[in-house]
């Protein structure tokens, strides 16, 4: 077990979650981020904790399933320690079904979900039940899964920081590395790796999202027209997001966001008159392998990498944190195939 202080570089969801689990397991930790709390992709507004489709199962989908099932206890403990809500709730998700072919596929996936998810969650195909909170469904049917959850990204990071502070761990602007250092630095970390490798290790993918003044805090999230529509506990509803590989300004919003707002309002008529409260844009770190990058940094003894959360970082965070703690504290490598740092190198 590590006895020296452990440095976590990066105060986003991966860095804070790893710091939290390490601290709970008795490690001495410092968190370093010159830009402050949740300054990058983790400062977003959407927060859809939604599962992969229950078919063509692989280690990535299994890891995400286990993480989503860990999330409720994980976030309860964070809130209890720091007194701040992360905005977490396992409220489920509704998806409209467009045509007969999609209806048949959805019913097939209900069977595979039962086999793969067991009794932990359900994937039901049903008639649309609530016209006030649903997306337009040409077939009149919708998918309802009970695995999906929501979280407010900024509030979740603030809740983790508060929980860490209650344990005596602050987020610092600068401090030197220690004998064990975890690099959870998002897009900036991927850029550093790209500079030292002959091929692309990862990149920042721009996303834009909007926050509407619409309160439905107990309602399930909706997935319609490729958009996530997330009712938050604070009485707002988030809509996201774009996926942009080419951009001029990573933090500016434009007509692409106008388009997804219009599409969301067309898909969910209840949102038609909801005012826009905020617009957000930022870069999300995606590794070359498209899975999170976890493990020891090759050729840098004592250094570890946790990066590449992309769109599923918040859903993966509980399991990522425990996996990294297993490796750092106990020398136990439970990183699944495809998640190893070498998979993206």
Automatic annotation (TrEMBL):
A molecular-function term among this protein's GO annotations: oxidoreductase activity
Keyword Nucleus (UniProt): no
Catalytic activity, EC: 1.-.-.-
Pfam families assigned to the protein according to its UniProt record, in alphabetical order: DAO
Annotated PANTHER family: GLYCINE OXIDASE (PTHR13847:SF289), SARCOSINE DEHYDROGENASE-RELATED (PTHR13847)
UniProt KW keywords: Oxidoreductase
InterPro entries to which the protein is assigned, alphabetical: FAD-dep_OxRdtase, FAD/NAD-bd_sf
Domain FAD dependent oxidoreductase: 6-327
Domain of life: Bacteria
Protein name: NAD(P)/FAD-dependent oxidoreductase
């Amino acid at each position: 077990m590590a006895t020296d202080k452990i440095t976590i570089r990066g105060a986003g969801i991966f860095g804070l979650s790893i710091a939290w689990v390490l601290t709970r397991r008795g490690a001495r930790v410092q968190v370093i981020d010159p830009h402050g709390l949740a300054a990058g992709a983790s400062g977003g507004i959407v927060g859809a904790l939604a599962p992969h489709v229950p078919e063509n199962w692989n280690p990535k989908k299994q890891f995400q399933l286990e993480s989503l099932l860990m999330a409720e206890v994980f976030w309860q403990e964070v809130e209890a320690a720091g007194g701040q809500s992360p905005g977490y709730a396992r409220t489920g998700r509704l998806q409209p079904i467009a045509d007969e072919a999609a209806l048949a596929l959805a019913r097939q996936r209900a069977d595979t979900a039962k086999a793969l998810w067991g009794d932990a969650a359900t994937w039901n195909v049903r008639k649309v039940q609530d016209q006030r909170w649903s997306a337009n469904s040409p077939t009149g049917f919708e998918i309802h899964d009970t695995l999906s959850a929501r979280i407010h990204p900024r509030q979740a990071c603030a809740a983790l920081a508060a929980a860490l502070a209650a344990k005596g761990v602050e987020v610092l602007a600068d401090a030197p590395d220690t004998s064990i250092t975890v690099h959870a630095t998002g897009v900036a970390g991927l850029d550093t790796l790209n500079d030292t490798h002959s091929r692309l290790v990862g990149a920042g993918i721009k996303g834009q999202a909007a926050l509407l003044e619409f309160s439905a805090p107990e309602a399930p999230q909706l997935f319609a027209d490729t958009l996530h529509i997330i009712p938050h506990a604070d009485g707002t509803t988030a809509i996201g997001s774009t996926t942009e590989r080419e951009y001029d300004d990573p933090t500016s919003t434009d007509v692409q966001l106008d388009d997804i707002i219009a599409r969301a309002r067309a898909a969910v008529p209840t949102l038609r008159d909801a005012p826009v409260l905020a617009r957000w844009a930022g870069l999300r770190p995606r590794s070359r392998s498209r899975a999170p990058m976890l493990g020891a940094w090759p050729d840098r003894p004592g250094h570890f990498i946790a990066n590449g959360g992309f769109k599923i970082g918040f859903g993966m965070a509980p399991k990522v944190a425990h996996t990294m703690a297993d490796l750092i504290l106990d020398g136990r490598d439970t990183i699944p195939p495809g998640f190893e740092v070498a998979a993206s190198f």
